[in-house]
Amino acid sequence: METLRAKKGFICDMDGVIYHGNQLLDGVKEFVDWLYEREKQFLFLTNASSRSPRELQRKLSRMGLEIGEEHFYTSALATAKFLQSQAPGCSAYVIGDHGLYNALYDVGITINDVDPEYVVVGETTDYCYDHILRAMNLVNRGARLIATNTDITGPVEGGIAPACRAFVAPIEATTGKKAYYVGKPNPLMMRTGLKILGVHSSEAVMIGDRMDTDIIAGIETGLDTVLVLTGVSTTATVDEFPYRPRLILNGVGEIAKEA
């Protein structure tokens, strides 16, 4: 724990680490207070693409946490940055919510449901057969398939819900084309997080609730890794993977409980 507490940069997942739905998890306020008191650099890095950083900031504010907008980075922003670097001024057919649309608009990507260069898929509560049909036909006509993240489910109040990869699966199956996934565990998103923090990977830690995205992302980017048991992965499911986090904690609040 002392090695962890000595780190300069803290990258934290949100769903299952900071909150479930609209419920703040135990110990989170104490952890955030500790980050500020110790003058740590920190970033909430989420695979969820539905909300903008400002909306995430306001969501936490409603839960009693006052955190600056600059402390949030989403897979929607990472996807927009990737497309901007690959094909500036391109167009895309988008399946997702306003957080993804806004991120794409902000870097000059236009929405196109006729002949786009890309089909981009993120989370949405408005997913339907017509989305699959249009995306399938556009990909078959040459549009490249991009997904914001690899999460197949995500924690919500009362259980779990389908996430991005569940929405992409029918398009991949019907076209035979694999999507390129931008969010965790893709090192692109992690390296951007480190640049935002201004710290070296050896001085940073990844804290998450998923072995298949958060922990592997930290390991492959050279960060210290902490799994918290407040989300998807459990002590039983840890053994299903050929890699392990360095620490397993009940929640982030344990980090703030210095002796």
Q: Helix/strand/pairing class, anyone?
A: alpha/beta
Distance between the termini: 11 Å
**Main sheet?**
6 strands, parallel
Return Rg in Å.
18 Å
Number of helices: 10
> Could you state the order of secondary-structure elements as H and E?
HEEEHEHEHEHEEHEEEHEHEHEHE
Spans of at least 5 consecutive residues whose pLDDT stays below 50 are: none
Number of strands: 15
Global shape: globular
Please tell me the overall pLDDT: 95
Query: Could you estimate the helical fraction of the residues in percent?
Result: 25-40%
Q: Walk across the major sheet and give the strand order.
A: 5-4-1-13-14-15
What proportion strand?
15-25%
Key structural traits:
15 strands; 259 residues; 5-stranded parallel beta sheet; 6-stranded parallel beta sheet; alpha/beta
Question: How would you briefly describe this protein structure?
Answer:
With 259 residues, this protein is α/β, with parallel strands linked by helices.
